[in-house]
Amino acid sequence: MWRDLHDVGRSASSGGYFRQPWTSAESELRAWFTEQALARGLDVETDGMGNQVAWWRPSEASGPAVLTGSHLDSVLDGGAYDGPLGVVSALAAVDVLRARGFSPSRPIGVSVFTEEEGSRFGLACLGSRLVTGASTWADARERRDRDGVFLGDAVAAAGLDPSTGLLSLDDVGCFVELHVEQGRDLVDRDVAVGVASEIWPHGRYRFDFEGEANHAGTTRMEDRRDPMLTYAMTALAANKQARLAGQRATFGRIEVAPNGTNAVPSRVTAWLDARCSSDEALAELVDAISRQAGERASRDETSLRVTPESVSGSVAFDPDLARDLAGIGDWPIIPTQAGHDAGILSAAGIPTAMLFVRNPTGISHSPDEHAETADCLAGVDALADTLARLAR
């Protein structure tokens, strides 16, 4: 399965992946998932957004279902493991359970949620948000990507129609997501597998800096209203405030107008990604960065507008479930600073857990993202043991 996915959406120059939702690469991935599920005799359900679930329903299985899986989309120039490892491992775990002669007493579903990264339309976990009702199609369809394409048009162009319905999670009793760790906690502990305790709250905020376009050569430095200077100070302030507070703040995307080498810009738009250990800490960090940005804008004679584009509160996973699963393999219970579909399902009231597989460098959202095969196989066995415990 891993070889099947290796070249789908992969850049020949960087080695990274461009698997944005409702593109040809993502359509190929959905077709691959369907093929793999049908080859295992699983019943495949695809909704009008492209969310998928492959069901293992033996005749004797009944009661609330156990759902597992992850996502197949990537960030721009992303790594191979973020998302696909959870999907491939879930299918492999079904194989392991069958090889053991295990027959579940409850249905088991392998899920793929679309647009988890939010890399195209700016709202992370969009597929699971729509399925759980955390977001509505009426609002989501008006979102635009970087090329100005409406989400509604992108979905239609992919041959999908949300009016035909979305997945129902009414019969799901619990959800378990396996994911490559996006950090070094398991490396430091020298263990291959861990269980999640919580997801830090995080948000994406758009900073619009407005100034005055002018000639780069003829305009004296003291006569400029340069929004790039305001942005530059804001990026440095974000770094300093996050370091002082022990939190996370990143400006990773920027747009400049008119974007000319010999012109003072008129506008700079930058996106802040902020993640903190508590909801209160997140609010305090963003307020501190915004306040310093506003003060600098006053000195630069520029203007600033801050718009929250998506904010997700802290998620504490079911502690009893986490302890129960950790006891299967004496796995450590650790927090994560990355957002996941598991967080959306947990917030919707579904008992949820996560398993992490060790990442030897901690690098993620990069072509250098990696996990050793032995650790991945340990993750498959851990997920199989977990599903057996939950579906018994």
TrEMBL record:
**Keyword Zinc in record:** yes
* Keywords from the named record: Hydrolase, Metal-binding, Zinc
Keyword match Zinc: yes
A family per Pfam? Peptidase_M20
Q: How is the cofactor bound?
A: Binds 2 Zn(2+) ions per subunit.
Q: Which InterPro entries match?
A: Amidase_Cbmase (IPR010158), Bact_exopeptidase_dim_dom (IPR036264), Peptidase_M20 (IPR002933)
Task: Provide the binding site for allantoate.
Answer: R204, N262, R275
Which CDD domains does the UniProt entry name for this protein?
M20_bAS (cd03884)
* Residue numbers binding Zn(2+) 2: D82, E117, H365
Report the cofactors.
Answer: Zn(2+)
Q: Which GO terms describe its molecular function?
A: hydrolase activity, acting on carbon-nitrogen (but not peptide) bonds, in linear amidines; metal ion binding
Query: Which residues does the annotation say bind Zn(2+) 1?
Result: H71, D82, H179
Can you tell me which family this protein belongs to? Belongs to the peptidase M20 family.
| Protein name as annotated | Allantoate amidohydrolase
- Species of origin reads Nocardioides currus
